Amino acid sequence: MPLHVPEGLESFSEGWIDASRPLHPATPVWPGDRPFELHQSRERSFVLSSFSTTCHVGTHVDAPLHLDETGHGVEAVRLERCVGPAEVVPIPGDSRAVSPEDLPDGWVPSTSKVLFRSDSYPIDAAIEGGFSGLSAELVRWLSDRKVELVGVDTPSVDVFSSIELPAHQALLELGMTWIEGLWLGDAEPGHYLLVALPILLQGAEAAPVRAILKSLYA
């Protein structure tokens, strides 16, 4: 049977932006979490590697199990939430919880996936505060407008000093999916195709993702 390649698909492999943070021994982790360690050994004619780290390292998806011991793990995260049209939206880059009033004037979501770019967390900066978070009010505002996935370019959807994690709790309550630790430094505000599938870690409360973006503008 001859192979049929849909028109335009051959060029579809070009122009992708890597929206992931690299994993290496200096990759920052939350205080007290296991840092990333890569172990390599040579066995005859090949190299074998293993690694150990927290599931919340770098760019990752949280699952309900992270906040609710009766919630599901990352194996049950809906894959359609992690693939499809998304919008990169700029937000203030200071260490506070962003509210709907902080969004660009007149902006409303046009996709079910919204990625917030704050530029408040450099790619290899230690996790010690100074980055933006989301308010529970903003999470509810997004949900009311049919947003199902929220991504942030910071280590957490909540600010560093948060104890009660209101943004996490609102996302959980509303059944939304969220990605933390994106790298959006190469993604200008606008519309993209997002692919950000979590590793299939059965029973884990979080998992790293390789997030990539492709502009939807011609």
TrEMBL record:
GO terms for biological process: L-tryptophan catabolic process to kynurenine. Pfam families: Cyclase. Transmembrane segments: none annotated. GO terms for molecular function: arylformamidase activity. This is Cyclase family protein. It comes from Candidatus Sulfomarinibacter kjeldsenii.
